[in-house]
Write a structure and sequence with these properties.
alpha+beta, globular, 10-stranded mixed β-sheet, 16 helices, Probable malate:quinone oxidoreductase
């Protein structure tokens, strides 16, 4: 998020000074690291939690449409970055991988068919397929088909337009470009306090973790893009807009294999249905990953609990986040989220064998010994005040001061995939007097900015061809056709 916002600001206002402070020794070592997230370019092609079924059996696709349009901005921003030398070889950060929804059983197959019918005529989801023929499924997903009973009912929604994204690589490349254009990047520097001055500027207190020296930096605008640590910093700022907000940390683990033969037998990101009581971020999926040019497979996530707000955070993070203004919000969520609590307890008690059982439901013929258990990034779900209680949210939200001098991002999935849309929202909220002047440049970077692609299908088709070709997601012959 911070790298994206910095790149946008530097493009819009080249003369503005930018300083970044990161507590770790390098960029993208928390949630943006490729092994701390699933790398799914979230365009709602396969995630079933974005397309819930209504009581009458129809499927609500409104959330899927919103997320897809947001991801189109990211694709355009990255394609523009490649064309301008901001980003390097597209294969270092984005690769074409089909996105697939997978279900078993007649009832879920009927739901998937209804989902396909609700999406197939939408231009944002052009080409999505419904597949229930066992031979065809075996051809497309041989690793998942081997070892299954012949009479088992299976169905897919298949989209060839999906991607795998190394968000760590995107972040490092954006920050490298920023640094080469005058931005000051400070690693092993921890922000300890934020205080607004009488002239509305901010004094940021920073500690150099190598020397122990503290310095104070004056800023006209501050963005807090500290992942799970953003809540603490926004609380330190004292802005009234953060009152009532809390955080619920959820850790995650994945089973991963770098076995080249296994990776060759599965080329897709396949999402299933979440267990009853599970949060949306815990939807099981078997993913092709491309990291540093190497193909691997990752299955999960397995949810867990840690009081840390960052993977390299502190055991006191959760306790320190409890304030008089958010106490009732957090207690209310605790009392009203018993299914989630039960789910997390069950996840914590799972043995390795039980985790492998979940993998075998996706791919029965796999040998679990080929997979290792890795710990992924820490997610802090947003708790927002709701009357005298609180509501647990599973998306992202931006919080900004009414004077537009500070903003921060809370929450998790889909997170990085929609970073561009989220950061454009920050610009619109915090710099309303400049947006009109910035608009031509924003449109240059993201041609669909301010446009409803549902209403301009010609522009959508043109931008897809351009971004596909620039990001090398399809061959030139397909583009020309």
């Amino acid at each position: 998020m911070s790298a994206t916002l910095g790149t946008l600001v530097k493009s819009l206002e080249p003369d503005w000074s930018i300083s970044l402070f990161e507590r770790l020794g390098g960029p993208a070592r928390e949630s943006s690291d490729p092994w701390n997230n699933a790398g799914t370019g979230h365009s709602a092609l396969c995630e079933l939690n974005y397309t819930p079924q209504r009581a009458d059996g129809s499927v609500d696709v409104s959330k899927a449409i919103t997320v897809n349009q947001q991801f189109q901005l990211s694709r355009q921003f990255w394609a523009h970055g490649v064309s301008q030398g901001v980003l390097g070889d597209p294969a270092t950060f984005i690769n074409p991988v089909p996105h697939v929804s997978f279900v078993r059983g007649a009832d879920d197959a009927a739901y998937l068919k209804a989902r396909h019918e609700a999406l197939v005529d939408n231009p944002l989801f052009a080409g999505i397929e419904y597949v229930d023929d066992r031979d065809e499924i075996a051809r497309r997903l041989p690793l998942m088909s081997a070892g299954r009973d012949d009479d088992e009912t299976m169905a897919l929604n298949w989209s060839d337009g999906g991607t795998d994204v190394d968000f760590g690589s995107v972040t490092r490349q954006l920050l490298g470009h920023l640094e080469s254009h005058g931005a000051e990047l400070n690693y092993e520097h921890e922000v300890r306090n934020l205080k607004q001055n009488s002239d509305s500027t901010w004094t940021v207190t920073v500690k150099d973790l190598r020397t122990g020296q503290k310095t104070r930096v004056n800023a006209r605008f501050v963005f807090v893009g500290a992942g799970g640590g953003a809540l603490h910093l926004l609380q330190k700022s004292g802005i009234p807009e953060i009152r009532g907000f809390g955080g619920f940390p959820v850790s995650g683990q994945f089973l991963r294999t770098t076995n080249a033969d296994l990776a060759k037998g599965h080329h897709a990101k396949v999402y299933g249905k979440p267990p009853v009581g599970a949060p949306p971020m815990s939807v099981p999926h078997l993913d092709t990953r491309v990291v540093d040019g190497q193909h691997s497979l990752m299955f999960g996530p397995y949810a867990g609990f840690s009081p840390r707000f960052l993977k390299e955070g502190h055991l006191t993070d959760l306790v320190r986040s409890v304030k008089p203004n958010n106490l009732f919000s957090m207690l209310g969520v605790g009392l009203n989220s018993m299914p989630l609590t039960v789910y997390l307890v069950k996840e914590l008690l799972k043995s390795r064998e039980q985790r492998v059982e979940g993998l075998l439901e996706f791919a029965p013929s796999i040998d679990g010994d080929d997979f290792e258990l890795i710990t992924a990034g820490q997610r802090v779900q947003t708790i927002r005040r709701n009357g005298m209680s609180g509501t647990l949210e599973f998306g992202t939200c931006t919080v900004s001061h009414r004077d537009g001098t500070i903003a921060g991002l809370l929450g998790a999935s889909p997170g990085a995939s929609t970073a561009v849309a989220a950061m454009v929202d920050v610009l619109e909220t915090c710099f309303p007097d400049r947006i009109a002047a910035w608009r031509p440049r924003l449109v240059d970077m993201m041609p669909s900015y301010g446009t409803d692609l549902m209403q301009d299908t010609t522009l959508l088709a043109d931008l897809r061809r351009w971004s596909d070709k620039t990001l090398r997601l399809v061959g030139d012959d397909h583009i020309e056709a």
